[in-house]
Amino acid sequence: MNAPLLPEILTRQARSAQADLPLASEGIQRYLWEGRFGPVLIEVKDGRVFVNGQAVEPADARLAGGNAP
Fold it and tell me: Domain tally for the chain?
């Protein structure tokens, strides 16, 4: 990753025809990570984390339920 990670600034590695959306919204934190395999959108809403729109469960919650990997 060579693009800076700033909460309200989107810096792309290359030009894109897609319109940029604002990263700042009321009650939602968004981070866009440009990685080797493409962009990853990380959002935090009401204390829950979503990656590319899918909810992410904390590892300690999974381990407490006996579903260790």
Answer: 1
